[in-house]
Write a structure and sequence with these properties.
4-stranded antiparallel beta sheet; elongated
Length: about 220
């Protein structure tokens, strides 16, 4: 029984490690000048990101969506205005920065300012990496059996874990290189400080000696 359960445990472990999906449902109030509400996800460079937004009805409201990253330049991957119903978007991450799905819910200009609270329900699903691949479509296209489809999913998850491991190793090497460079600069600055202090001390000795000679205090 234990030998049979071991492969299932390994499969479950791979599924847990490869899980990169987010599902959230929330109400977004509408205002004349709404702030941006962003949902952030951590991604790796080259990762496929599928965004599915199911927007509920909202009379007199306009919902805009924007997908950006957390870099200093705040790169914009997607910008759509007045979305409604179910929308599906696909992007590919280019940097190691987090990806943010941002919404703004506007009150239309022709809606009277009656103080009534207006909101829209947003059901958001974000699939990243292997979770973003439509294996059902692949199975239909390549005529795969259920077992072959599951094996293809596991293959994708294992590859994603391998890519993440390589990426983490790269970041660790980069941080180590930065630390070594910083340590070298600190050591060089310390030696420069010591040399400066020694040089200043020698200069003071010769300066004082010359001063005392001018005053005939020493020979």
């Amino acid at each position: 029984m234990g030998a049979r359960a071991l492969p299932l445990l390994l499969v479950a472990l791979v599924l847990c490690l490869g899980q990169s999906a987010l599902a959230i449902k929330f109400n977004l109030p509408a205002t004349r000048y709404p702030p941006s509400k962003c949902i952030w996800n951590s991604v790796t460079p080259g990762a496929l990101v599928i965004i599915t937004a199911n927007v509920g009805p909202g009379e007199g409201q306009r919902l805009d969506i924007e997908v950006v990253d957390s870099s200093d330049h705040r790169n914009v991957y997607l910008n759509k205005k007045n979305i409604s119903g179910e929308k599906r978007f696909a992007i590919t991450a280019h940097t190691e920065d987090d990806i943010g799905v941002c919404f703004r819910n506007y009150i239309e200009a022709d809606v009277p300012n009656d103080g009534k609270l207006r909101t829209r329900v947003i059901d958001l699903d974000v699939d990243i990496g292997a979770d973003a691949v439509d294996y059902n479509a692949i199975a239909n296209q390549e005529s795969l059996s259920a077992l072959e489809t599951e094996m293809r999913k596991l293959e994708g998850l294992v590859k994603e874990i391998e890519d993440q491991t390589k990426y983490l190793t790269y970041r660790e090497e980069r941080f180590q290189s930065t630390n070594e460079s910083t340590n070298t600069r600190v050591v060089n600055f310390a030696w420069f400080t010591i040399a400066s202090l020694i040089g200043l001390g020698v200069w003071q000795i010769f300066h004082l000696r010359a001063f005392f000679k001018r005053k005939y205090l020493i020979d």
